[in-house]
Amino acid sequence: AAMRSRAEVDATLRTAKLNSAELLPAVHCLSFGPQAGGGECCLLQLEPGLCAELEAGRSLVIRGEKDEQAVLCSKDKTYDMKIADTSNMLLFIPGCKTPEELNSDPASCNIFHSQIAGFSNNYWELRRCRPKLKKLRKLLMEDPYEGPGSQKDQTLTFSKYTTEDLLSLIQASEEEILHQLQVIDACKIEGYWRILEFDYEMKLLNHVTQLIDSESWPLSKVPLRACLEELGSLEPREMIEHILLSYGRKYIDDAGEVYFEMREDKICRATAQMLLQNAVKFNLSEFEEVWQQSVPEGMKTRLDQLKGLALVDKSSRPETIFLLKVEDLPEDNQERFNSLFGIREKWTEVDITPYIQDLCAEKQTVGALLTKYARSSMLNGVKVYNSRRPIS
């Protein structure tokens, strides 16, 4: 392409009836370079926080297996990726000067000849989303850890996952994955992340609570060293410590000794799960009695400890309670509601909240979710919610 002169540029401006006094003096003359093909480049629109991540030398990672919708992860956040089409063609011009850069240079009355290196009609748009963590528990539950003597663990066939494996399989940022591993009480055994098989976990917890009872320790001050010495012959010491970390809060006293304050709500909840998991439904008043007798002395059971674990059926006579774990429900919003309305036709907000709370996006309320996915009505003076669509 022939280089344009200033006179040609001014003539073009006159033809276009543009007043050069209203324009910046610098002129960009664009031409397509030899390699200016579309499709080689992808554009990604980033919010300032993510830009700062890249500028600081950190990386962003795209995660997802072939059958999954791609997500982009920073160190601690997850974003959905969607293609946004533009009506204007976007041109890539290396070394292109922006109006701000030109303005600061009073001598920029010259002509810039720039070559277009590529173009695009769309770009990737990011939307902050909930990390897709359900799969994490599912993978680890393929082979729950049943203890050091278990036959299954002697074989080499069980599914093993390191932190690296989980980072490549789970659509969530590293910090979100590590936090979730803590939430589900996973532990690292020989470098692999494992979840304890529930009966084995209860066996370990039982050892600890029986020891607390026999030693008459206060539940708020359980000594780590004594637990390891007393129980180390029964189970691996790291398992004893893991169960204390899962069911207690660790602290160090003035003398540097490590103690645990046992978490009443979590121990009561696990005990309830143990009682409920073998029954389809349980008479509520009988359950409450057995439950209170089954927890360590000094602990008080309350139904609100069972949010997202068990549901009371007030419509049956007598009232019953049954196991319904939020982690067993679908991760997708619509599927979650379909599943809940399949279990029970009408829900009060109090009952349904523990089963949809985890679906709330940033700054979203349970009320907003209910408005979108459910229809409200009054039943005997109480507001209840049912499905917006017929449940098959």
TrEMBL record:
User: Which stretches are annotated as coiled coil?
Assistant: none
This protein's GO CC annotations: chromatin; chromosome, centromeric region; Ctf18 RFC-like complex
Q: Which GO terms describe its biological process?
A: DNA replication; maintenance of mitotic sister chromatid cohesion
Keywords of the record, alphabetical order, are: DNA replication
Which domain of life, per UniProt? Eukaryota
Per its UniProt record, what Pfam families does this chain match? Dcc1
Keyword presence, Membrane: no
Question: Its family?
Answer: Belongs to the DCC1 family.
What's this protein's name? Sister chromatid cohesion protein DCC1
